[in-house]
Amino acid sequence: MKYIFLVFILFSCAKKDSEVSDLNFEKNSAFIVNGGDNSISIIDTKSFAEKGRFYFKNVGNSFAHHIYLSKDFTKLSVAFPEYDFSNGHNGLHGASVEGNVGILNLLDKSVKTFPVAFANHNAILSNDQSEIWTSLVSHSGKIQVFDANNLTSIKEISVGPDPTEVIFAKNGELALVACGETSFLTVIDTKKKEIIKEIKVDPFPTNVWPGWNQSVVFVENSNAKSLNIVNLDDYKVIDFIDFDFLPGFSIFNSSTNELWVCAPKSNKVYVYEKVQTEWIKKSEILTDVEPHQIGFLKDGKTAFIVNQKGNSVQVADVSSKKIIKKINVGLKPNGIAIWE
Q: What DSSP designation does 162 have?
């Protein structure tokens, strides 16, 4: 039995290496980052099948977290906090946990990784691909900016305690981050790399996500069970939604004018539509365990729902709100980037 087991291990490892070498990173793919095994599942956006899986190596026990595609479709950026965010953020309080950034070049399949001082929530390339921005989820909150070519530090920006996702808006002119131990959304000028505004939102915001255009963002608050909609032209909250569930990731489908909101504790995605002055819950989609992120195809007709504790991606028809396929991926998937 020992020999059979050893042969199985060798065969599995050989297959994994072979799969990696044969992978093609190409258009019409959805890239799913899997935090439990530091891999990327590549899903064909036409057949809805997993084409292969890329495994990051030499990044330690680092729990890959969230994934972004560069504007020129040549690189993927991933955070590698040495902490499992699927267990919540509270375990970081009082801890000393380092983080890492990984950049995967899709042209030659090379990977660059480098460490940062504390567990980071995500890593994202600037619009011109010259910089890498990452957020350190510590009480002495920091946004760190690195040169994308030589990976040297350009600037460390002090923000409020417990910053989470850092994203860009206004065509890359602004960087946004919600700091969990504050009541503000922090706005940073990406050229000057200085804070230019603190926008009052609901207390203890948990994340910020892109809105329906470059001047609007959504501030998620799982503590207050709310969503603030912020206009970056005048730096004000212009709308809000109060939920009867704990919200997670939110995304707007411009083709249908619908807001899709993950409810990870309820294993559902709720769909909202604004009717006159009020956001109305239009429908709900029962998902696999703990929906964490959603991506739409360009035409707005198909949604990919990433289920962190279900180890799956479910494909949903936007019109009918029906799940049409389930795709098993790696362990603890938590992010999606789509190239069409």
A: S
| Sheet of strand 50-55, all strands in order from the earlier edge strand to the far edge | 50-55, 39-44, 29-34, 333-339
Helix residue spans in the chain (DSSP H):
2-22
Across the chain, how many H-helices and E-strands are there?
1, 28
| Tens digit of each residue's pLDDT (9 = 90 or more) over 282-298 | 999 999 999 999 999 99
Quickly count: other Cβ atoms within 10 Å of residue 165's Cβ.
21
* Residue 261: per-residue pLDDT: 98
Q: How far is the C-alpha of 78 from the C-alpha of 103, rounded, in Å?
A: 7
Query: How many CB atoms are located within 10 Å of the residue 209 CB?
Result: 19
Q: CB of 43 within 8 A of CB of 36?
A: no
Pair of tokens at residue 290: 């703990």
Domain ranges of the chain: 159-242
Provide the 3-class DSSP secondary structure of residue 20: helix
Q: In what order do the strands lie in the sheet with 184-189?
A: 163-169, 174-179, 184-189, 194-200
- Against a cut of 0.90, is the pTM above it? yes
CATH class of 159-242: mainly beta
